[in-house]
Give the backbone structure.
Amino acid sequence: MAKKRKGGRPQEYDPSYHPKALIDYFDIDISTFKDITITYKNGDTKEITEEEAAPLPTKRKFCKSVKIAVSTFYDWVKKHKEFSDAYIEATELQHDFIMENTLRKNYNAFFGFQTMKNCHKWRDKTEHEIGGTDGGPLLVKITYAN
């Protein structure tokens, strides 16, 4: 009886290519510049250069660019140390990309903040207050050894 295939062509991992490709994909200029002509009601024109965010590099887009499934990507992260290291660096590059574009106001601040929470494990700070019984003062008992 023939062995049943799981489906799809297995993707070969290439340590000389894939880690470098991953870092190169995420290590891009954060913004682009375009020249715009503004025309006023009176017919006057003004030339300006406007900055806009470059397309956000994502893991899914990387997978599409090298023609692998997202599940294959995560298998490589688990199984290949050099790819795992490249993944960590790519994540940091994406973090910087989002932060820089948010600080330059190329991204809405809410978008930047929520993206960092969802993609980079940012969390709101939680304050914890320590107190005694029933919210009273904390009592500390110090015992000295003789």
About this structure: The longest strand covers residues 31-39.
